[in-house]
Amino acid sequence: MLQYKAPVMDMKFLIEDVFKYYKHYEKYPEFAEATPDLVDAILQECAKFCENELLPLNQSGDKEGCKFDNGVVTTPTGFKAAYNKYVEGGWQSLSHPVEHGGQGLPPSLGMAKQEMMGTANWSWAMYPGLSHGAMNTIQSHGTQEQKELYLTRLTEGTWTGTMCLTEPQCGTDLGQVKTKAIPNDDGTYDIVGTKIFISAGEHDLTENIIHIVLARLPGAPEGTRGISLFIVPKVQVDQQGNLGEGNKVTCGAIEDKMGIKASSTAVLNFDNAKGVLIGPENKGLECMFTFMNTARVGTALQGVCASELAYQNSLLYAKDRLSMRALTGKKFPDKVADPIIVHPDVRKMLMTQKAISEGGRAMIYYTAKIVDEIEMATTDEAREKADDRLGFITPILKAFLTELGCESTSQGMQIFGGHGYIKEWGMEQIVRDVRISTLYEGTTGIQALDLLGRKILLTRGKSLNAFSKEVLLFCKDKSMISKNPHKRQMNKFIWALSKNVANWQQYTMRLALKAKKDRDIVGSASVDYLMYSGYIMMAYFWAQMAQTAYEKLATDVENRDFYRAKIKTAEFYFERLLPRTKSLAKTMMADPKTLMQLDQDLLSFL
């Protein structure tokens, strides 16, 4: 059976020491209640809920899956009871505005909650998780009436929300959306069309589901310029928020999937379902990006969650499984063999998992502070500045952390050997569950094109230059002996990091010049460029964690082993994982002709 203990100590290390959340919270009067004592209590209680209520449903939910019967979806045994406890505990309302029934705590704290929930049981966590994007979209683009009508129930968790983008004929290319919105005299719209791959699109956990739907108005322009956004409830709602008749939204099927089997992925048919417009006409895709960016950061978190769960169970297994003797001599002579954790190759896999899990968590928690800044911005300038930072980081987080999540879980299966392939141990489920993370909310290739094409080349590297400046200022500050008593220990991180950042800027400039002559260079280089960027970005956060660990070693005697482990993991990352940038640099700069020169008719001779 899978084991999980929430890594509260590591989470508090990032919150309190590395990213100094409490100093950050002091800037916003609305976050006055987010004191260290309260945050600690929330982390501890959330850990108990996730370990005791959600984890036991992880493997059983995978085995049972969701049931579909003539449009009705039943979640696995125990899911509804756990959801009711979640709502009763006020967990859904944790980081949402007080005016809609929320507790008004920071979104960054909500991200920590999501991490624990997602690690304990990703399939279950998707049901309330999709609601956050729906709520953010309504909060950002809805009318006051729409906010009052929908946000309170979504905030308390008695209703959930979805995003309905994809259709049978189109995936990422939303310009092909065919769903129609036909205006009615009363200001509503009849929504007609079919949406597929709708996570949590139908279930039995709540009395209503609020669908955020992309559709076309009559006479709308072709392509993405003619898409509008609509709120379409499963059950119709009157002006007082009371439930009325069922809307003409039916679940035609749920997908038989590779993983996340306990999360219902629905085919939804809209047969003149009543909806209301949210945001301006033909600006639906722009409004939907509020939802999509929320979902993409959440999907990046899935990579970290899967890596953490795989690592914890791999470590337990490696300490217990006996096989062969250490090459340097017997370590446990009283046993028939040594535990496999003594073997360097197993240690390399474990350290890779640890570096990915903790480095990924740092990347997420850094980003969560930016989300706070966007939510609390009081001027358009401040909001735009923070949004630009988030827009640059999001595709890297989404693609890089999910790809590394797949690597980490695969390493976990390798550590387990043949037992990793057996359902009983749970490792094969983690591998199956995390695989979707590289696909939904935009595949790795799509994220890479967004990063290199839109966020870098179209802006002439504006966001990259700003992030690079931040990293280089950190390097300069930590290399000054007057300010940094740990200069000697930090040099091994600072020199490598500053060199990589300088190379990052140079390679970006060279790619921009190449792209002017051959646009195929963007497509051929983009994925390698994104991964290259991700390794450097994660190196920045490992350097910060190492610096903080050195500082804490001087004052915190009780937790010295924790800080020493953090420094040694940083050393492993810089020695074993960061050098991957060298091969990625070579491949991303390669001429695309080797990809495109072979005629498609010659790809096979079958």
UniProtKB/TrEMBL annotation:
<keyword id="KW-0274">FAD</keyword>
<feature type="domain" description="Acyl-CoA dehydrogenase/oxidase C-terminal">
    <location>
        <begin position="282"/>
        <end position="450"/>
    </location>
</feature>
<dbReference type="InterPro" id="IPR025878">
    <property type="entry name" value="Acyl-CoA_dh-like_C_dom"/>
</dbReference>
<dbReference type="GO" id="GO:0016627">
    <property type="term" value="F:oxidoreductase activity, acting on the CH-CH group of donors"/>
</dbReference>
<dbReference type="InterPro" id="IPR036250">
    <property type="entry name" value="AcylCo_DH-like_C"/>
</dbReference>
<keyword id="KW-0285">Flavoprotein</keyword>
<dbReference type="InterPro" id="IPR006091">
    <property type="entry name" value="Acyl-CoA_Oxase/DH_mid-dom"/>
</dbReference>
<dbReference type="Pfam" id="PF02770">
    <property type="entry name" value="Acyl-CoA_dh_M"/>
</dbReference>
<dbReference type="InterPro" id="IPR009075">
    <property type="entry name" value="AcylCo_DH/oxidase_C"/>
</dbReference>
<dbReference type="Pfam" id="PF12806">
    <property type="entry name" value="Acyl-CoA_dh_C"/>
</dbReference>
<keyword id="KW-0560">Oxidoreductase</keyword>
<dbReference type="Pfam" id="PF00441">
    <property type="entry name" value="Acyl-CoA_dh_1"/>
</dbReference>
<comment type="function">
    <text>Involved in the assimilation of dimethylsulphoniopropionate (DMSP), an important compound in the fixation of carbon in marine phytoplankton, by mediating the conversion of 3-(methylthio)propanoyl-CoA (MMPA-CoA) to 3-(methylthio)acryloyl-CoA (MTA-CoA).</text>
</comment>
<dbReference type="InterPro" id="IPR009100">
    <property type="entry name" value="AcylCoA_DH/oxidase_NM_dom_sf"/>
</dbReference>
<dbReference type="InterPro" id="IPR046373">
    <property type="entry name" value="Acyl-CoA_Oxase/DH_mid-dom_sf"/>
</dbReference>
<feature type="domain" description="Acyl-CoA oxidase/dehydrogenase middle">
    <location>
        <begin position="163"/>
        <end position="272"/>
    </location>
</feature>
<feature type="domain" description="Acetyl-CoA dehydrogenase-like C-terminal">
    <location>
        <begin position="470"/>
        <end position="599"/>
    </location>
</feature>
<dbReference type="InterPro" id="IPR052166">
    <property type="entry name" value="Diverse_Acyl-CoA_DH"/>
</dbReference>
<protein>
    <recommendedName>
        <fullName>3-methylmercaptopropionyl-CoA dehydrogenase</fullName>
        <ecNumber>1.3.99.41</ecNumber>
    </recommendedName>
</protein>
<dbReference type="GO" id="GO:0050660">
    <property type="term" value="F:flavin adenine dinucleotide binding"/>
</dbReference>
<dbReference type="InterPro" id="IPR037069">
    <property type="entry name" value="AcylCoA_DH/ox_N_sf"/>
</dbReference>
<dbReference type="InterPro" id="IPR013786">
    <property type="entry name" value="AcylCoA_DH/ox_N"/>
</dbReference>
<feature type="domain" description="Acyl-CoA dehydrogenase/oxidase N-terminal">
    <location>
        <begin position="41"/>
        <end position="157"/>
    </location>
</feature>
<comment type="similarity">
    <text>Belongs to the acyl-CoA dehydrogenase family.</text>
</comment>
<dbReference type="Pfam" id="PF02771">
    <property type="entry name" value="Acyl-CoA_dh_N"/>
</dbReference>
